[in-house]
Amino acid sequence: MSSTPIDNAAIEARVKALLPAERQLYAERRPKARAMAERKGKGLFDNVPMHWMLDWPMPFPMVIEQASGVHLTDIDGNAVVDLCLGDTGAMFGHGPEPILEVLRNTGHRGLTTMLPSADAEIVGELLAARFGLPHWQIGATASDANRFAIRVARAVTGRRKILVFDGCYHGAVDDTLVDLVNGRTFSRASLLGQVVDLGETTIAIPFNDEEALRGALASGEVACVLAEPVMTNCGMILPAPGFHDTLRRLTREHGTLLLIDETHTISTGLGGYTMLHGLEPDLMVMGKPIGGGVPVSVWGMSAEVAEGLDRARRARDSHGHSGIGTTLSGSALQLACLRASLEKVMTSGTYATMAARTDIIEAGLIKAIGAQGLPWHVTRVGARLEVVFSSEPVRNAGEAREAASSVIEEGLHLSLLNRGFLLTPFHNMILVSPALAEAQAQALVTAYGEILARFCQAGEAA
Ligand SMILES: Cc1ncc(COP(=O)(O)O)c(C=O)c1O
């Protein structure tokens, strides 16, 4: 243990000194991926399909040959244990067997017809039983589902605005891509091709701020509050005790619908945060792992919202496009994968395994942080863990941004990757799939402890 207390600025300096060697090691082990990255001019975005794949904290992207269970193998033959899991798309492991079985055996019955398959009824019943809302619709991505649910909220309430929490991410959904700057809501500064001022339609307030919530809802123009139950895209921000009760009470008082996005917090356990903590949303969205990795999302509605939607549809004088749903939404393939996922993948046994492995990692990280006297803490929502670089839990995005350090994140990310563990990029998240073995959880803790010791010793040597 270090003799003097260590602060984040000192750790950043130490990490900066260590990073060149970590980058070099990463690159030396990946000559094929490096050659791909250096063959310019082949792809739209420098040889990777999506431009943001170049934004990971790696000198160049590792190129995946095979993903199975918790293992990734790259084209250079490096094997790593995956704790990013496609940022939740593969939360239940890469290629869960029941999903592979659907892909092998069910495809011949048809992939997409723009009509319901026989699985539709069963999937509707499974979703209602699991998540508590009676009416469900399908999308391809969580972004889709959020867009459609927001449109429904506006159609049902006849109101223009939505409210989100500063630091949120709900996908490529225009209305939600905003920043809160000096108390005002603006289009997010990083957006490309943004022509509409999103502050016109969206109000952002800090998470856990009951006063700001009360003030924003009082105008009576807010169709819905769209919220993750635990904020997971700006570090990890837990709700303060009683915040969800207040949120529900105030939204009801002001005729505002509550739309809960469980895309990430579905890590909490069976039925998501909503069921485990007794939330009572009017609308709910899930995507990413819900179909075991196949592009499918779901959005649910209460009976009142479904009735309101029905009224709004009947009141239209035209039968043209509603702006809800896309051609491949609700395809036979999606329904078959959803059914297999709900019946055989997302089971209580699966969640119990995830929780047991996460317990090991959480306890190990707390010990490793304590051993170095680091002013950090660990937050958790079910199988999702975040190491936050502050001694106290953060309450909103402002505090989360203050605690963040891209340098320390890069140091952790690359050091762990060079020891065989892949973290989620852009923050410090560890996601635990049921495919992670106990020994792998222990090995992660050991590697984490060694890395933290190195971060704390490097400066002393320098
Ligand atoms: C909470 C939340 N909702 C929705 C989305 C959008 O998911 P997708 O990119 O699959 O549309 C994300 C993506 O990270 C998310 O974190």
Could you characterize what this model shows?
The protein has helices at 8-28, 31-38, 97-105, 119-131, 142-157, 210-218, 243-253, 272-276, 303-315, 332-345, 348-371, 397-403, 406-418, 438-461, and strands at 64-68, 71-74, 79-82, 135-139, 161-165, 178-181, 184-187, 202-205, 222-227, 257-261, 283-286, 297-301, 377-381, 384-388, 421-422, 429-431. The chain is of the alpha/beta class and 462 residues long. The protein has a seven-stranded mixed beta sheet with strand order 4-12-11-10-9-5-8, sandwiched between helices. It has a four-stranded mixed beta sheet with strand order 1-2-3-15. Strand 1 (64-68) and strand 2 form a beta hairpin. The model has no long low-confidence stretch (mean pLDDT 94).
Mean pLDDT: 94
Q: What's the tally of helices? A: 14
Structural class: alpha/beta
Estimate the strand proportion: 15-25%
Number of strands: 16
The rough form would be described as globular
Q: What's the SSE pattern? A: HHEEEHHEHEEEEHEHEHEEHHHEEHHEEH
User: For the terminal residues, how far apart are their CA atoms?
Assistant: 17 Å
- Which ligands accompany this protein? pyridoxal-5'-phosphate
Question: What is the alpha-carbon Rg in Å?
Answer: 23 Å
Low-pLDDT segments, ≥5 res: none
Helical content, roughly?
Answer: 40-55%
Widest β-sheet, arrangement of strands: 4-12-11-10-9-5-8
The major beta sheet can be summarized as: 7 strands, mixed
